[in-house]
User: Which sequence fits this backbone?
């Protein structure tokens, strides 16, 4: 089974392929997409260990990146640039990212800055990267105390999503991806897609098949998520307005990742904690009804998620949030639910944000 989606921004048009094709077909598609170009393949260590014998890559064109968010740093970025120079890549050549979001983000950033921008291709191997970071052209690296603070908007040449990679994805990483999937259920009405997808209902009714990784259901789920994301990106490539809805749950998520030095929570787990928090706050502030509040919490719990059972000092979280790239004019940005499948942006002062934490009291189950 194969689905093709199209992304069309002001600067570039490209296709996203979602399939369960054989690895031989995937190799052929990558070769065709890079025909006539020198290549630098940036591949995660875990993917290299599991799948290298299934690819037609030459060892000479590889850069193997260790796994973990902490590897998305400027030292590895410079190593990738230096490897591109060693291989003699020119402006006509290409980088290929094979791995999860860390590999995709740092490769896209390297490609966008090498010789002021060369082609790159995304081959996401996790559910999280398939439904989120591989599509839309946001690329970045982290600093010690600020996630994605150095980055660019640079669209890929193509995206190849092959769900066979999910067969070796462990339960925690699969659920991490579902954290980003669930996000889309809460923002569907904002995205401007041409028809209703009923993603909230699809995720509610299809939970068992999704958790079993039933191929057709997984392909449909990824397609629905990316239909929504590409609709947003096509309207607002550089996050001037509408694209901010994709940050639902992310303000607290990025603070949690940063305060724990990217070692305690996966990105998807942090996003789920962020969604629990903001849904609870929105209900307490009467932005949403009790019935929608219960539906929302029950959807998250259906996939085995729970609120964060740990307290962090609100003042420390707020200090991190103040440095977030979405913060402006001394205020912190949150995307909050206000109706079923609808969200909006609000801005709070640091003092109001501390009070927000006190209002929700404790992130706990």
Assistant:
């Amino acid at each position: 089974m194969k689905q093709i989606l199209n992304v069309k921004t002001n600067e570039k048009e490209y296709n996203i392929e979602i399939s369960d094709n054989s690895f031989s077909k995937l190799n052929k598609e990558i070769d065709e997409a890079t025909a006539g170009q020198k290549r630098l393949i940036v591949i995660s260590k875990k993917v290299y260990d599991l799948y290298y014998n299934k690819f037609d890559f030459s060892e000479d064109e590889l850069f193997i990146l260790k796994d973990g968010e902490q590897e998305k740093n400027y030292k590895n970025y410079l190593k990738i640039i230096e490897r591109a120079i060693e291989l003699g890549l020119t402006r006509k050549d290409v980088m290929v990212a094979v791995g999860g979001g860390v590999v995709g983000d740092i490769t896209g950033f390297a490609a966008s800055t090498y010789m002021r921008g060369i082609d790159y291709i995304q081959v996401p191997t996790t559910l999280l990267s398939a439904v989120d970071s591989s599509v839309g052209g946001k690329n970045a690296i982290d600093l010690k105390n600020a996630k994605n603070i150095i980055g660019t908007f640079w669209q890929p040449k193509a995206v190849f999503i092959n769900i066979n990679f999910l067969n070796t994805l462990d339960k925690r990483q699969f659920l991490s991806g579902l954290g980003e999937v669930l996000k889309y259920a809460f923002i569907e009405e904002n995205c401007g897609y041409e028809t209703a997808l009923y993603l909230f209902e699809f995720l509610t009714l299809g939970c068992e098949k999704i958790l079993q990784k039933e191929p057709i259901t997984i392909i449909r789920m990824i397609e629905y998520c990316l239909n929504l994301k590409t609709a947003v990106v096509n309207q607002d490539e550089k996050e001037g307005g509408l694209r901010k809805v994709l940050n639902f749950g992310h303000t607290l998520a990025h603070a949690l990742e940063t305060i724990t030095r990217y070692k305690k929570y996966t990105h998807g787990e942090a996003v789920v904690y962020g969604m629990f928090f903001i849904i609870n706050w929105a209900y307490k502030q009467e932005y949403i009804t009790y019935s929608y509040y219960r539906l929302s919490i029950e959807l998250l719990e259906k996939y085995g998620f729970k609120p964060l059972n740990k307290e962090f000092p609100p003042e420390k979280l707020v200090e991190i949030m103040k440095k977030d790239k979405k913060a402006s004019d001394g205020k912190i940005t949150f995307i909050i639910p206000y109706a079923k499948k609808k969200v909006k942006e609000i801005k709070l002062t640091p003092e109001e944000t501390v009070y927000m934490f006190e209002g929700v009291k404790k992130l706990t189950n």
